[in-house]
Amino acid sequence: MSDTKLQRLINSMSPAEKRNFKIYVNRSASNSGSKFVLLFDFLSGKRKITEELVMRKLSLNKGSYANLRQHLYNEILTSLRLIYISKEIDIELREQIDFTRILYGKGHYLDALQLLERAKLKAVKHGQDILHLEIMEFQKMIEARHITYSRRVVNKMDFLLNESSTITRSMLNTSELLNMNIQIHGRYIERGHSRSREDFLENAAFWQEIQTKRADSESTGSTFHQRINRMQATMWYYYIQLNFQDALEAARDTAGLFNMSQQMIVKDPDLYLRCLYYVAVFSYLTHIKKDLKRYVDRMDSFLHDGKVRLNENSRQLGLTYLNLSKYNYYFSSEDWESAYQLSTALHRDYELNNFRPNNQRWGLFLYKSAVACFLTYRYDEAIDYLIEVDNIQGGILREDLLINTRLLHSICNFELGNFDLVDIRLTNLKRLLKKSKESAEVHLLTAATLRRLLKVPKAEQEPIFEDLRQGLGKFRKDPFEQKAIVYFDPNSWLDKHL
User: Fold this and answer.
1) What pLDDT sits at residue 278?
2) What is the reported pTM?
3) CA dist list (Å): 69 to 4, 21, 314
């Protein structure tokens, strides 16, 4: 195991979790000076330390150091598990199943069945279908192998078998609908939007192909997750087909489902935040500013509700969705200065490790920060952000983000008078536009406009900008081009020069 993996885990721990770990390992006096505790202290410190320094301080060779890292990693996970047993129902249920297996191994069959029955009731109450099935399969195994006197209770075994069949069918339905959701989402990742009549028909055929008999119609007995997977799959299909209005309606349905099942907000806050975010995204794409503001406020209220207990993953995910949506609201409201102030706050939190989106998401934040700088005429600052996007470790997966980044970089250099750099960057951008399925006519037209601007003096540039404005007007009825304009809007640049 690498230092990076262990360091990531330690860095993600809150001060309370670190205190709990020290209490956990010091429960035995013999552990207080253990090398893995000293390693934890080293890695928890603010100063940067090398592997060689740690091995020298702890008098370890490479093999011993690798074993020590793994031991510390396991001990941290064990201490965290003890914290979250009372907070995460699935961890608590798994512990009960573990206790049951210990009882069974000791030959206490009846005690094991009693514990399983209590765990099953809790699994049903909290919608933990997979654990519910696991518990019932364990019950059936005990009943099949041992004399438990359960058949003396009228219909008890019939009820157990029927319950097992029902939950098995329900889980199969859930799995198939989740598969459908993943397949249509994967279709978008692999192929992008429908750009032609042929694409449209192929995607429609694919959508029909992945429907299952169980997914053909929504029965009244569908579970919450079955319905939400069906709705999200539908949303992705409409998005692929560039039908943003119907995608918005499907996204609203998912958020509405949580309104009808309030307990699921507490049980699955990540999914709830994701559904709110999708409504905000499609409100932005369809220019419904009122809905965008409402869902931004809902995310904000939920994340800052003192009664809601969120783990660190949920909190970070929520902050990512909320701040991306805030950017979209500020851009749609033409509140450029608020967008810039948001960028300043986010970068401060990122430096302090309070805000930790993954590299792909951080690339999106860097781009939006650059846009905010560009719109407030801070071109040098915008370029700094855009260079960071290009240099993100592991690279950016989204080609549309790369296109927008490199095109905006060229425009910023044009505004600063770095015309030689613009020429070089446009040459590199041309290659990307030629091979990318995410390139839009608006990108090509803007790049061509920059080329024309480089060839004429400033006094003769206004007609070229006017040509770009007229060219953009031709895309009003093309949803793919409109999406590109929403995320890379040259109109504010035109307003400055016209």
Assistant:
1) 98
2) 0.83
3) 11, 15, 27
